[in-house]
Amino acid sequence: MGTDNHTPLRLGMVGGGKDAFIGAVHRLACRLDDSFILTAGALSSTPEKSVASARELGLAPERSYGTWQQMLDGELKRPRVERIDAVTIVTPNHTHAAIARAFAEAGIPVACDKPLTSTLADAQTLAAAVEKSKTPFCVSYNYTGYPMVRHAAHLVRTGAIGAVRKCFVEYHQGWLATKLEDAGQKQAAWRNDPAQAGGGGAIGDIGSHAENLLSTVTGLEIEQVAADLTSFVPGRKLDDDAAVFIRMSGTAKATLTVCQVAIGEENNLTLRIHGDKGSLWWRQEEPNHLTVATLDGMTKVLARGSGFQSPADSASRLPPGHPEGFIEAFANIYKGFAQTVRGFNAGKPTPGEHPGIHDGLRGVRFVDAVVRSGKNNSVWTSLDGR
Ligand SMILES: NC(=O)c1ccc[n+]([C@@H]2O[C@H](COP(=O)([O-])OP(=O)(O)OC[C@H]3O[C@@H](n4cnc5c(N)ncnc54)[C@H](O)[C@@H]3O)[C@@H](O)[C@H]2O)c1
Predict the structure, then answer these.
(1) Given CB 3.0 to 4.6 Å as the disulfide criterion, which of 53, 269, 276, 374 pairs with 162?
(2) Residue 120 within a domain
């Protein structure tokens, strides 16, 4: 059982088998600071592929499970000192709720990818179960792990740009410009199937990241949305484009757009925040810099790793000019989660910096409200607070 800061914690993984996308990123990220070591897995949707995927990754045969239920049972039977310290869930959205709930109720800390669940009812049930169990929970909204995003949040909290007035958050991609879901591309297939993805297409897949970035950096709550959702690709079952007007707590407003049919766009997540004393700009494709403008006419470009006396300093590993990126930001989420898990193991709660169950629930409430507004002629719609 890992309690010290040196021994890597043992991680089980559900999903992330052969040909999967984000599981491999999680495996790199969790190792970067020796936070976790992959020890067990139920890596795929069939037992055969799960075991074959585990073999490729060098997992011990007795911890190469056919299903996540077998992994839960098998790990609970092990002495506490050998058992996995946490599980990470990197399966399609509709499977998250049952897996996360079972592990959380068994007292095994959970890291789950976004969106937390495919329905609001599932998210509410899961959040209640997690709260009751008091098991640590992380949702891998990895973009909040970037040092310059954390510094932006610090600047907003410390008043550098004054009261937030207007925000623009955009997440634009082009990979779904054709009907890839009919061409045997499995990531496109489940993302465009309402039974697996949930009620939101692009808004659930990347809009959930945009919502989390906006909410995390501003510290404000999204209260109401008015949304226009489009499926540009003929026959597509879910939205591949959304434009959302947002009313936030206080008087702040935001505009959020997502698009997955913007040919030429790669992973263009951009946040702009305008306050009554200044503004901030950050772009995921240039994540090592943050631009800050103030009322006195000064515009500065801040470079990651330059020592701003900010909580974000510890999120950098290299001096400025040595680019850090996606994996390092992801690793910061795992680093924070490892701290939480170590505190849990030691019986001394010491929460690390990472998004938790409430971020996950808020994200699903946002997607649910956007979809309801979109289906109701873009009428202003409150987030369901139940
Ligand atoms: N944080 C991010 O930046 C990010 C990026 C991509 C995907 N995601 C999220 O990660 C999740 C997975 O997305 P992906 O693109 O990697 O999908 P994927 O289709 O590439 O991989 C899903 C994996 O889950 C496995 N799987 C399905 N059902 C399973 C089950 N019952 N038990 C065990 N394994 C099972 C599949 O076999 C596959 O290996 C989604 O929730 C997605 O929204 C997050």
Answers:
(1) 276
(2) yes
Report the C-alpha gap between 24 and 57 in whole angstroms. Answer: 10
What domain range is 298 assigned to? 147-318+363-382
Closest residue CA from atom 28 of ligand 1? 45
pLDDT under 50: residue ranges of the chain: 386
Measured in Å, residue 290 CA sits from the centre of ligand 1 at: 31
99 and 247 part of one domain:
no
Residues 247 and 229 in one domain: yes
Atom of ligand 1 nearest to the CA of 14: 33
pLDDT at residue 384, as a whole number: 78
71, part of any domain? yes
> What's the CATH code of the domain at 229?
3.30.360.10
- 20 CA: nearest ligand 1 atom: 20
> What's the number of domains the chain is made of?
2
Beta bridge partners of 243: 228, 257
User: Ligand 1: which residues within 6 Å by Cβ?
Assistant: 14-17, 20-23, 42, 44-45, 68, 90-93, 95, 113-114, 140, 142, 186-187, 190, 205
Could you identify the atom of ligand 1 that is nearest to the CA of residue 18? 39
Same domain, 215 and 170: yes
Residues 183 and 306 in one domain: yes
Nearest-CA residue for atom 18 of ligand 1: 20
Give whole-number Cα distances, 386 to 120, 128, 164, 208, 382, in Å.
10, 11, 27, 19, 11
pLDDT digits (tens, 9 = 90+) for 212-264: 999 999 999 999 999 999 999 999 999 999 999 999 999 999 999 999 999 99
Do residues 139 and 151 share a domain? Answer: no
The tens digit of pLDDT for each residue in 256-292 reads 999 999 999 999 999 999 999 999 999 999 999 999 9
State in Å: Cα 42 to ligand 1 middle.
12
Atom number, ligand 1, closest to the C-alpha of residue 68: 32
**106 and 212 inside one domain:** no
Q: For the sheet containing 268-275, what is the strand order?
A: 299-303, 289-294, 278-283, 268-275, 164-172, 253-259, 241-248, 222-230, 381-382
Block residue for tokens 């990197």: 90
**Same domain flag for 204 and 257:** yes
d(CA 319, ligand 1 centre) in Å = 33
Does any domain span residue 323? no
